[in-house]
Every structure is written in structure tokens, then in C-alpha cells.
TrEMBL record:
Subcellular location: Cell membrane
Coiled coil recorded as keyword: no
Protein name from the UniProt record: Biopolymer transport protein ExbD
InterPro entries, per the entry: ExbD
Keyword terms, alphabetized: Cell membrane, Membrane, Protein transport, Transmembrane, Transmembrane helix, Transport
């Protein structure tokens, strides 16, 4: 005598609940582990052009000095004078003596003296890795 096996409806349909749970867990994981844009980059500055500019590939623990078109310096979105920036930079160098980097973001309309002052500040505090940020553009910068 042959047995008849009834197929149930539950076995023929695929349950999507575990798949949705996995997707939500992945979404939460990537949201928690992703790096958000730093406050220093929110200041509206028009960067000068350079033909050999290259994008930064890795974000390190960097100290960003923004200089607006009038020559005023900002760190973390707050306006500061050279003495206050020097104190912050000395503390940053004390925390990270060998790998501390400084990025100087100056508006293209700023006179060169504030940029030189920021570079001199880096040299005085012992920072050997500093750079001036530019924007890739046509040769000649016009």
C-alpha cells in the first residue's frame, strides 16, 4: 500500500522575516561603524585650484585650521587667535607626538600671511606633517 504525503502550504512558501532581520542588523552595523563628516569641514571656504591635487585616501587624526577670506582662523568651527591655536596644537602633539598632522584650509582670497603664520605655528609646535588643502582645477588657477 502506497502512502500519500500531503504537502503543506507552510513548506512551500519562504519566510522573509529572518532575511529582513539580517538586513536591519547590517544597516545598523554600517550606520554605527561609518565615519561622519567632521565639523571642521562645514565652514564655507572656497579652496584655490591646483593641478596636482589628490584626494585624501585615509582619514587620520588630523588637526584642521580653517582660514576665511578675511584671514580669521577657525578650529572646530570656532574663531581663535594664534595663541589659543598654539595651546590646542601643543596638546594634540603631546597626545600624538609622531603622527600628528595638520591640514590648513585657506580661502583662495586670503592674503598669504595667515597661511604662513599657521605653517610657522606647526613648525614651532613640532608638527612636521602639515599640508595646505587645494581643489583640483585648471592650470594657472584662473
Amino acid at each position: 500500500m502506497a502512502l500519500k504525503i500531503k504537502k503543506s502550504q507552510a513548506a512551500s512558501t519562504l519566510s522573509l522575516t529572518p532575511l529582513i532581520d539580517v538586513v536591519f542588523l547590517l544597516l545598523i552595523f554600517f550606520l554605527v561603524t561609518s565615519e561622519f563628516e567632521e565639523e571642521e569641514r562645514k565652514l564655507d571656504i572656497v579652496l584655490p585650484n591646483a593641478t596636482s591635487a589628490s584626494p585624501m585616501t585615509a582619514k587620520t587624526k588630523e588637526f584642521v585650521i580653517d582660514i576665511n577670506a578675511t584671514g580669521k582662523m577657525f578650529v572646530g568651527g570656532r574663531a581663535m587667535n594664534l595663541d589659543a591655536i598654539e595651546d590646542l596644537l601643543r596638546r594634540a602633539v603631546a597626545d600624538n607626538p609622531t603622527n600628528q598632522t595638520v591640514v590648513i584650509r585657506a580661502d583662495k582670497a586670503v592674503p598669504f600671511q595667515p597661511v604662513v603664520s599657521a605653517m610657522d605655528l606647526c613648525n614651532r609646535t613640532g608638527v612636521s606633517h602639515y599640508s595646505v588643502t587645494t581643489q583640483e582645477g585648471p592650470a594657472g588657477g584662473l
